[in-house]
UniProtKB/TrEMBL annotation:
PANTHER family: DNA-BINDING DUAL TRANSCRIPTIONAL REGULATOR OMPR, REGULATOR OF RPOS. Residues 135-235 bind DNA. The modification 4-aspartylphosphate is found at residue 56. InterPro entries: CheY-like_superfamily (IPR011006), OmpR/PhoB-type_DNA-bd (IPR001867), Sig_transdc_resp-reg_C-effctor (IPR016032), Sig_transdc_resp-reg_receiver (IPR001789), WalR-like (IPR039420), WH-like_DNA-bd_sf (IPR036388). This is Regulatory protein VirG.
Length: 242
């Protein structure tokens, strides 16, 4: 973080909500800036050092899910999504596209503050989403991961970009290749969150990553599933750069 006081950007098209949220966060010792849409959000991010973005899903123009995906691909800024209570798919897709957490509307401001502080604690402890692979190129099966550029390159030189969520999950599995990791372990290692009962977030993220690295989705060979166990990256890993 750039300042002793964390700087939170609140993006919501409802002026009453963003004003109330900012007032509460400022009373709790945080610094805030408001934006009514993705365009204003981009303008703030271009000129301010922001430690976390609170981002509403339902906004005019570019919606929150699209903005979340774009932010996660371009940097490591933490994102907390505000979603409608009944729209479970928004939460799943949001986490897949790089959000660090979500909170359903209507919400208790104290819970919002607690989640923001939890994300800030996690991100302050994290040196790099690339972990021990930061700055390195890593070969696994027919792929090479370029951790600096967050792309995977196949044997013919074709590149595939990774979202923040894809990248974090792949790094965790590469660092623990041939180990069976439970859904709970993967959730904790990738986001610092505790998986709720029946939470399918990790399953959806695995499916998304498989679509990028598997040759045959019906018979996945790189990420294998263990019944009642979890998932395993079934490949040898070679670090190409010292």
């Amino acid at each position: 973080m750039q300042n002793a006081t964390p700087h939170i950007l609140v993006v919501d098209d409802h002026s009453e909500i963003r004003t109330a949220v900012c007032r509460y966060l400022e009373k709790s010792g945080l610094r805030t800036t408001m934006a009514k849409d993705a365009r204003e959000m981009d303008a703030v991010l271009a000129t301010e050092n922001i430690d976390l973005v609170v981002l509403d899903v339902m906004m005019p123009g570019e919606d929150g899910l699209s903005a979340c995906k774009r932010l996660s691909q371009s940097g490591d800024i933490p994102i907390l999504l505000l979603t409608a209570l009944s729209e479970d798919m928004d939460r799943i897709v949001g986490l897949e596209t790089g959000a660090d957490d979500y909170l359903a509307k209507p919400f208790n401001p104290r819970e919002l503050l607690a989640r923001i502080r939890a994300i800030l604690r996690r991100t302050s402890r994290t040196v790099s989403p690339a972990g021990s692979l930061a700055g390195k190129r890593v070969r696994f099966a027919q792929w090479i991961l370029d951790s600096d550029r967050r792309v995977i390159v196949d044997s013919e030189g074709r590149e595939t970009s990774l979202t923040s969520a894809d990248f974090k999950l792949l790094v965790v599995m590469l660092e623990r290749a041939r180990m069976v990791l439970s859904r709970e372990q993967l959730m904790e290692l990738t986001s610092g969150r505790v998986a709720a009962p029946l939470d399918r977030t990790i399953d959806n993220q695995i499916s998304r990553l498989r679509r990028k690295i598997e040759r045959d989705l019906l018979r996945p060979r790189l990420i294998t599933t263990y019944r009642n166990g979890g998932y395993c990256l079934a490949a040898d890993v070679e670090v190409l750069d010292p």
